[in-house]
Design brief:
The complex is a heterodimer of chains A (about 350) and B (about 260). Chain A is mainly α and about 350 residues long. Chain A has helices at about 1-45, 45-70, 80-100, 100-120, 130-150, 175-200, 200-210, 215-220, 225-250, 260-275, 275-295, 300-315, 330-350, and strands at about 160, 170, 170-175, 250-255. In chain A, a hairpin with a 2-residue loop joins strand 2 (about 170) and strand 3 (about 170-175). Chain B has a six-stranded mixed beta sheet with strand order 6-7-8-3-9-10, sandwiched between helices. The chains are: A mainly alpha (about 350), B alpha/beta (about 260).
Chain lengths: ~350, ~260
């Protein structure tokens, strides 16, 4: 009887494998279409819309980086703008004072943000959700006020820093919004892919276990504090690199761009996304795009936006697209091997 | 040399002494049962060994190394794996991914090779999935590999926890009420599984309330009451120990 059930499962498995092939291709078609759509968008829009597209791109990058921390590892970080700010200021200072090209400063901006995150997060990373949240709010405020107070005479106080030069990529100077559009969304695509690969690895799984049940994760042999810190530093590094491009796009940066309210928006984008990267992308489009589309309603637009958020909370509290469990490619051979060893195990026991 | 040596261990919770000056040894390749009435401190003993609690006094030596005060993940790395009394699976994740959690500490891929899927990472990932499938097959859950852990029956969830613990290549496996919530048939199968685990040269320390199971598979019993040992030895001698009968009288005594 055991044999027939095993055979039945084996065939079911084979059908599943075939189904998975189509599902995989359906996915590729979807992503190719999505990329084409994003690539074609500037060809139709006015410069206003392209600028909005760039803006959404920055928010998407920030949300994707926060998604590693909040969506994957479940660490409540409401101070993400602090790391964005550190990255932007590192680029601004290196560029305006020492005239480093923007793209050279980018890895450094990322590292500086990552290092800053490691230093501030190390003593607090073991805190439980809500407590950590409060501390991260403190971090973003401290950074903003520090920048405002012209730390070391480098940050320019409340005026900020202006005159940041445009980035040059292989001799091509990136100036127009349309250039920035492709640069930023290209970075989104690369980040999306890298974080997708990360999720399908030991590291991504560890974060997921920690988010689900950190006691069980620790009990299974996962160094919870270490992985939480790694996720935090990785997300902050990404935010720092994004800040670098932001500084080059704006050419002028000021402390007020990196405030608590902006951190809240990024936080809300990730929560609304529901944990999956596609969810975060859609959520960023809605969150930043919708208020612009509602502009014709003038004073009512934020009201409508608030209403949309409330309805969302009622009807879809888990977010737009929650994370789907990963499909593991257990080959046919492996499955039949496992079947064999099951019966062998049974024999051994009998 | 004993595999695990607990020496004069004491654990307090505020004014309550949960474990009181407890000493015992676990010999390699044996099956040891820790029994006692509810609230005797059995799970506290386990939590001290696995690093979830740090005892106030005494020492815990595993494989010749002191493990007192080490963090739980470090202790798993050294070779002590556990299951939980109240099942703690990642219930939304597929069974195979639950087992992979146990495999994590034996994998080496760093953050960067995980981000870029380096060839070594891919190879390791494949080997690990294969190994975890073997563990699933070992406990008889291979055909459930893609099902969310939460969708399995209670008994199967307990087996999945055992598979997850086994995936970390333990020398000592600690089972906290492995037969809890299982029916008679499942318990019988569990006995076979535990015996098969021992055949793999894995030492087993278990808490269990099902006395028939305990008497059947344990070579040595430790009886705990109010945090201290009241009897130890072979099941047959412990069964007739007056102190043990006294401790169980009125509740489980007639079950023996």
């Amino acid at each position: 009887m055991h044999d027939t059930t095993a055979a039945h499962h084996f065939h079911a498995e084979k059908n599943k494998t075939v189904g998975r092939f189509f599902e995989h291709n359906k996915r590729s078609v979807f992503y190719v279409a999505l990329i084409l759509l994003f690539a074609a968008f500037p060809l139709t829009g006015s410069s206003y819309w392209i600028d909005l597209g760039v803006n959404i791109g920055f928010y998407t990058l920030l949300a994707l980086s926060l998604n590693v921390i909040l969506g994957q590892a479940g660490i409540f970080n409401m101070g993400h703008m602090a790391f964005y700010g550190v990255g932007a200021y590192v680029t601004a200072i290196l560029n305006t004072v020492w005239h480093w090209p923007v793209f050279w400063t980018m890895p450094l901006a990322g590292c500086a943000a990552g290092l800053f995150a490691a230093i501030v997060a190390r003593p607090i990373i073991h805190l439980r959700g809500d407590y950590l949240l409060i501390v991260t709010i403190g971090i973003v405020e401290i950074v903003r006020i520090a920048l405002l107070n012209d730390i070391g005479g480098l940050t320019g106080g409340s005026n900020g820093i202006f005159g940041i030069s445009r980035p040059v990529l292989f001799g091509f100077k990136i100036v127009k919004p349309i250039h920035f559009y492709y640069l930023v969304w290209g970075m989104v695509a690369v980040s999306y892919l890298l974080f997708y690969m990360m999720r399908r690895s030991r590291f991504g799984r560890a974060l997921n276990y920690i988010k689900t049940d950190d006691v069980a994760a620790e009990g299974c042999g996962i160094d919870v504090a270490h992985y939480k810190l790694l996720a935090f530093v990785l997300g902050a590094t990404w935010a720092g690199m994004t800040g670098s491009i932001y500084a080059a796009k704006m050419t002028t940066i000021a402390p007020e761009s990196f405030n608590f309210m902006e951190s809240c928006i990024i936080f809300a984008v990730v929560i609304l996304g529901g944990g999956s990267q596609l969810g975060v992308l859609i959520s960023a489009l809605l969150f930043i795009g919708l208020p612009e589309i509602f502009r014709q309603f003038n004073d009512f637009r934020m009201l409508l936006f608030g209403l949309a958020m409330m309805l969302m909370m009622i009807w879809r509290p888990q977010g737009i697209l929650p994370m789907r469990p990963r499909l593991y490619a257990v080959s046919k051979k492996l499955f039949s091997g496992a079947k064999e060893s099951t019966s062998k195990g049974q024999e051994k026991i009998a | 040399m004993p595999l695990l040596k607990v020496d004069h261990m004491t654990k307090n919770f505020g004014g309550l002494v949960a474990v009181d000056d407890l000493s015992f040894n676990v010999e390699p390749n044996s099956i040891v049962g820790l029994i006692g009435p509810n609230g005797a401190g059995k799970t506290t003993v386990f939590n001290c060994i696995t690093g979830n609690y740090t005892p106030e006094a005494g020492s815990i030596t595993f494989d010749g190394q002191s493990i007192k005060g080490l963090r739980p993940h470090k202790i798993v790395e050294l070779g002590i794996a556990r299951t939980f009394q109240s099942i703690r699976l990642f219930s939304d994740l597929p069974s195979i991914e639950n087992v992979l959690a146990g495999r994590h500490c034996r994998m080496k891929a760093g953050m960067l090779s995980c981000l870029f899927h380096a060839p070594s990472q891919k190879k390791e990932e494949e080997a690990s999935v294969e190994r975890c499938m073997e563990e699933l097959a070992f406990v008889g859950l291979a055909h459930h590999w893609q099902d969310p852990a939460g969708s399995l029956s209670y008994g199967n969830q307990r087996l999945l926890e055992i598979a997850r613990a086994l995936a970390s290549d333990p020398k000592l496996l600690i089972l906290d009420e492995p037969a809890g919530g299982m029916n008679e048939q499942e318990t019988k199968a569990l006995v076979d599984t535990i015996l098969a685990i021992r055949k793999r040269n894995i030492t087993i320390l278990l808490i269990e309330h099902d006395m028939r199971l305990v008497m059947k598979i344990c070579e040595k019993l430790l009886v705990l009451e109010h945090g201290s040992l009241i009897a130890k030895g072979e099941p047959s001698s412990v069964r007739n120990d007056p102190a043990v009968i006294e401790a169980y009288l009125g509740s489980d005594a007639n079950k023996w």
